[in-house]
# Entry
Amino acid sequence: MVTIKSLEDLKKMREEAQRKQELKSASGKTEIIVGMGTVGIAAGARETLKAILKFVEEHNLDNVIIRQTGNIGIDSFEPVVQVILPDKEMVTYGHVSPEKAATIMEKHVVNGQVVTEYLVNI
Amino acid sequence: MREISLHILDLAANSVSAGATTIKIEIEEDQATDTLLVRITDNGKGMSPEMITTVTDPFVTSRTERKVGLGLPLFKAAAEACNGSFSISSEEGNGTTVEVRFQLSHIDRMPLGDLVDTLLTLEVGTPEVHWIFWIKKDGKEFYFDDQDLKRELGDLPLCNPEVIRYLRSIFSEGVNALELI
# Structure
């Protein structure tokens, strides 16, 4: 049976991650929510989430929380991504392709600037 | 949806919506019987017999935002178009099992697609669920139960970059070693 790598690897990974986490300030985290209902998935939400995870890996962002959620209720705008900066209102983006997701991550999540051209206008 | 992996994501999302705290995803490719099996077992709220009979009807959904649900009927139709089958067993209060079979070699069978991404999406995107992934092919298998990992991580989130990297490597190695079709 192939199971997870050795427990040793797991411990090493955890220690490394914790060490890095401690270097950062303990300020609030940014929440990123990806709509993963049937419509979202069919519209490419998995690729969108993949791009977000890639960005987090490549930029070593450890101050974000990523969640998937069911149908957000605005099907015609899927894939939908919502970003909540600490102590800020939720911002909703629509038609978020992997490329747009990377832009949102860079401009909004990292630099705090809302990407107004991708906002959902209902 | 033209990937079995995307349908799996969709079925798993149903389980999450049904309040499941443990979800097991099994995938088995068996060349001897020419079968591809996908089975998703959850401990969510389950369905009444009436709900089961109507759930694969494209005009039924338990969601409130939108009245038409398409995930299950689409997957059912895809399986049945490939000499396959689709079954749901469920009991109210006791969870649901969805089992889908395809003829592995059927010309119209949609590809399994990017299973690693699907597993990563589920594990990282829905960390509150206890996930079990069990992928089998012709006697070989990849089994992943996230309990050891979560115990070791403690309060470190699954969306931590080191953890994502770690999970990606485990899932890629595990899945790639099976050489699924």
Notes: The longest strand of chain A covers residues 30-35. The interface with chain B takes residues 1-5, 7, 9-11, 13-14, 16-18, 20-21, 34, 36-38, 41-42, 46-47, 49-50, 53, 56-57, 59-62, 64-68, 70-73, 75 of chain A (CB under 8 Å).
